Amino acid sequence: MTTPAPPAPSALTAAAGSIDARKTYGIDEAAVHALDGVTVSFEPGRFTAIMGPSGSGKSTLLHCLAGLDSLTEGAVFIGETYLAELNDKQLTELRRTQVGFVFQAFNLIPTLTARENIMLPLMLGGDEGDTAWIERVIDTVGLGDRMTHRPSELSGGQQQRVAVARALASRPTIIFADEPTGNLDSNSGQEILSFMREAVDEFGQTIVMVTHDPYAASFSDRAVFLADGKIVHDMTDPDADRIIDQMKQMGH
Ligand code: ADP
Ligand code: MG
Predict the structure, then answer these.
(1) Is the pLDDT of residue 229 over 50?
(2) Nearest atom within ligand 1 for CA of residue 61
(3) Number of structural domains in the chain
(4) Which of 26, 43, 67, 137 has the fewest CB atoms nearer than 10 Å to its CB?
(5) Residue 9 pLDDT more than 50?
């Protein structure tokens, strides 16, 4: 047996992560441990899937990592910043500049065009952003003249592409996506997954995506499995067959 090489220096600098993260809802007999001691870190420029059965704590972990919710115990960090050390104003600023979030339900502003939706987070910060970068993102989203359309004039898949582009616009440290293909047919879902894969491969974007779909997770570089608020498995370069085997082992 050989001794494993020490990790490369770059691997020591995570884009985000948690240390013994715990989140409890309710008290006494009614207490639910949604997160029961999760320690995980996400390397920059990688696409990670978080998998696990319904109720295993996936959304709770993502919301706490993104600063949308707070832990009961433990710590989460984005880059070198521990979220618990920030006041409300600093947390809002960190979320605006360093975190992108993609929801299952798209969450676009109905009265704004696709382009305006993509630009909105930057405009709210009084920030033009990196214009060349934004043009590249808009180019990659591949909506052509539909950029002037409102969400109601776009298909679900097109709306979600806008939502991913919006998350990319500020060049955040990390993008979190909670079941981003959950409301889409398989073709539209595949387009979103390819778009996110491209953002990782071509732009070096870091993405963490919650999904319970083995096919969706097969686009990732790593799949982390949660059960009852704990990490039970961590798989590199997952493919759909290995993911399905793991899910069977977990009793689902
Ligand atoms: P997943 O996204 O994996 O389906 P969640 O993170 O949504 O799981 O939920 C994990 C556990 O925490 C579940 O048992 C769920 O019922 C519970 N839970 C989530 N949010 C709340 C809440 N706001 N109040 C009480 N319990 C909650
Ligand atoms: Mg969920």
Answers:
(1) yes
(2) 6
(3) 1
(4) 26
(5) no
Residue 166 falls within a domain, yes or no? Answer: yes
Task: Tell me: pLDDT of 108 over 90.
Answer: yes
* Neighbouring residues of the ion ligand 2, judged by CB less than 5 Å: 58-59
Domain range holding 179? 45-58+87-249
Task: Name the residue with the closest Cα to ligand 1, atom 24.
Answer: 25
Tokens describing residue 78: 């984005």
Find out whether the beta carbon of 57 lies less than 6 Å from any atom of ligand 1. Answer: yes
Q: Element (H or E) spanning 175, and its range?
A: strand 174-178
Is residue 211 in contact with ligand 1, taking CB distance under 6 Å? no
Residue 3 placed within a domain? no
CATH of the domain at 192: 3.40.50.300
Residue 54 lies in a domain: yes
pLDDT one-digit tens code per residue, 207-226: 999 999 999 999 999 999 99
Atom of ligand 1 nearest to the CA of 229: 10
pTM (2 d.p.): 0.92
3-class SS at 166?
Answer: helix
pLDDT tens track for 230-241: 999 999 999 999
Contact 60 CB / ligand 1 (< 6 Å):
yes
Gap between the terminal Cα atoms of the chain: 35
- Strand segments, DSSP code E, in 26-160 are 32-42, 47-51, 73-78, 81-82, 99-102
